[in-house]
Design goal:
Distance between the termini: 17 Å
Number of helices: 17
Radius of gyration: 24 Å
Largest sheet: 8 strands, parallel, barrel
Number of domains: 3
CATH superfamily of the largest domain: Phosphoenolpyruvate-binding domains
Strand order of the largest sheet: 1-2-3-12-13-14-15-16
Length: 476
């Protein structure tokens, strides 16, 4: 099932999509990767989802990616004696270490690491920023704040700290258990929530030990401040606009989305744009015009993937949401301005290697000769990623002997990944690249294809060769 678009679609699974038939319909409608949100799924549910996806993968005969999204640390206030409190603008309010029920003047903050890190002037946002305060006095046992935006606060509401770097890991005990379960189930990607620093990513990558690739969710100002370091440490990025829009002013989110997308592309890392893309389709069969424009903007920007959350997990029209997103992407990619915008964003790779130069050359040769496909022989997926970074006009057919690599590449812009035996020699490499190009619908007899590979075969990172070939009559 060859997609007629370059950008990929991630669909979140949930109560609306627990049935195998529905998940199959989501795939056929356009989903390339399935996200399992561990904030709402237990280990048993994870196992069921993975089993169903792998069954569908076998039946369809195409690699499907699976992303396990870890919950991350959830910071919450304690409870109130009356179940809530109304905080009035300009009034003082204390967050402290006392576990006693709170009132309109104070509440327990069961996170000593926060109290230790807060300083005068820091903002405290409660309940996704509905109530906002700033600290005027802080100590290890209490923080006195002034209410800037009034509101009613219920028990156990979440706390966000946009100005404060908290000296805690992004991995909780639940995350560690979920990560181990996800790795045992053979997921392809693991997403880390609330990343603050590159060390958060290194910790998870050490735990995965190469069994899955690691995606950093950018949703905190601290990660933005060290963006290049975070991108360098991660295997992919997600612009998690929901929580990011809580911790930074909403008007800054579009600019940050563009900055993250372009920075990730420059460094050759896949980037996903997520949250509220077709939000109205949770309840309606059609999106708003603004949502269509939002999805289109992400596609125009060259994002590797766009993601559906509640739309596919709990909405009333999950299949329609995927199909709608796919149609929007296909239309954008045929727009006359699309290629101009994508090409204008090209930037040289930092510290370019021979493999980077080969990827640029493959793009240029393919565009000069109007080649039907760029065939990338790849063991680790690095060759396909380098070519995808260049956003070529020709589709990328990634040929790999590793099923895990094919599944991981399901997330990457423009890549149609196929598991196949590794090439024995150059002649076999060329012949089978032509055969697969024809069988997968990328070319007909007489069409040119570009073949990129590394010698010796099977050596990760050894991309050093380009070949031109013609699809032959014996390929069909």
């Amino acid at each position: 099932m060859r997609r007629q678009r370059r950008v990929k679609i991630i669909a979140t699974l949930g109560p609306a999509t627990v049935d195998k038939a529905v998940i199959t319909s989501l795939y056929r409608a356009g989903a390339d990767v399935f996200r399992i949100n561990m904030s709402h799924t237990d280990v048993a549910g994870l196992s069921v989802y993975v089993r169903l996806i792998r069954q569908i993968e076998t039946e369809i005969g195409r690699a499907i990616g699976i992303l396990a999204d870890l919950q991350g640390p959830k910071l919450r206030i304690g409870g109130f004696a009356e179940g809530f409190a109304y905080l009035r603008k300009g009034s003082s309010f204390v967050f402290d270490s006392d576990p006693a029920p709170g009132d309109a003047t104070r509440v327990h903050l069961p996170h000593p690491e926060i109290l230790n890190a807060l300083k005068q002037g820091d903002s405290i946002l409660v309940d996704d920023g509905k109530v906002r305060l700033h600290v005027i006095e802080a100590s290890p046992s209490r923080a006195c704040a002034v209410v800037d935006v009034a509101g009613r606060v219920l028990n156990r509401k979440g706390v966000s700290l946009p100005d404060t770097e908290i000296p805690i890991t992004s991995m909780t005990a639940k995350d560690r258990a979920d990560l181990e379960a996800a790795l045992n189930e053979g997921v392809d990607w693991v997403a880390i929530s609330f990343v603050q620093r590159p060390e958060d990513i290194h910790e998870v990558k050490k735990a995965t030990a190469g069994r899955a690739l690691v995606m950093a969710k950018i949703e905190k100002p601290q990660a933005i401040a060290r963006l290049d370091e975070v991108i360098e440490a991660a295997d992919a990025l997600m612009v998690a606009r929901g929580d990011l829009g809580v911790e930074v002013p909403l008007e800054k989110v579009p600019g940050l989305q563009k900055r993250i997308t372009r920075s990730a592309r420059r460094l050759g890392k896949p980037v996903v744009v997520a949250t509220q893309m077709l939000e109205s389709m949770i309840l309606a069969p059609m999106p708003t015009r603004a949502e269509v424009s939002d999805v289109a903007t992400a596609v125009f920007e060259g994002a590797d993937a766009v993601m559906l959350s509640a739309e596919s997990a709990a909405g009333q029209y999950p299949v329609e949401a995927v199909a709608t997103m796919s149609r929007i992407a296909e239309e954008v990619e045929t727009d006359a301005l699309y290629r101009q915008i994508i090409n204008a964003q090209r930037a040289a790779a930092p510290n370019p290697t021979v493999a980077d130069a080969i990827a640029v050359a493959a793009r240029d040769v393919a565009e000069t000769l109007h080649s039907k496909a760029i065939c990338a022989w790849t063991a680790s997926g690095a060759t396909a990623l380098r070519i995808a970074r260049e956003r070529p006009l020709s589709p990328i057919l990634a040929l790999t002997p590793k099923r895990d690599t094919a599944r991981r590449l399901a997330l990457t812009w423009g890549v149609h990944a196929l598991e196949t035996q590794d090439a024995r020699d150059v002649e076999d490499m060329v012949k089978r690249a032509c055969v697969h190009s024809a069988r997968e619908g990328f070319g007909e007899p007489g069409d040119r294809v570009i073949i990129v590979a590394g010698m010796p075969f099977g050596t990760p990172g050894a991309t050093n060769m380009i070949r031109l070939a013609l699809v032959g009559d014996d390929c069909c």
